[in-house]
Design goal:
By secondary structure, the protein is an alpha+beta fold. It has one domain: Zincin-like. About 40% of the residues lie in helices and about 15% in strands. The chain has three helices and three strands, in the order H-E-E-E-H-H. Strand 2 and strand 3 form a beta hairpin. The longest helix has 21 residues. The chain binds zinc ion. The site of zinc ion has 4 residues, from helix 2.
């Protein structure tokens, strides 16, 4: 899995599902053994990290993972939330409302 692929998926989903409401985040590769991905505010700019080695194989998983982080990004940028480690009511509502592709919901460590 290449970082450029993740960026392309983000652009595609932003256009198709979010009407390009989200910014283009700073996306970087992570290396560790315990987390697949994250999205956070970094001094007013959205940042995402993806563990290119840990990402499960299969396009559905990759798309669902990027979509998951984009829902956190939506919380940050549109709803003004700050704690993207939570998967509370707002996260679940965003995930459901924009999920026109019926992605499965992964919670663990993403
Ligand atoms: Zn999450």
């Amino acid at each position: 899995m290449k970082l450029a692929t993740i960026k392309n998926i983000h652009r595609e989903l932003n256009n198709d599902l979010f009407n390009n409401a989200l910014s283009i985040p700073r996306i970087h590769a992570m290396r560790n053994r315990w987390i697949y991905a994250y999205c956070a505010d970094d001094n007013g700019e959205s940042a995402m990290g993806f563990n290119l080695r840990l990402i499960p194989r299969g396009w559905l998983c990759v798309y669902a993972l990027v979509y998951h982080e984009m829902c956190h990004q939506y919380e940050l940028e549109i709803l003004g939330g700050s704690d993207t480690w939570e998967h509370g009511k707002n996260f679940r509502r965003v995930y459901r409302d924009f999920n026109k592709r019926n992605f499965p919901l992964y919670f663990e460590r993403v």
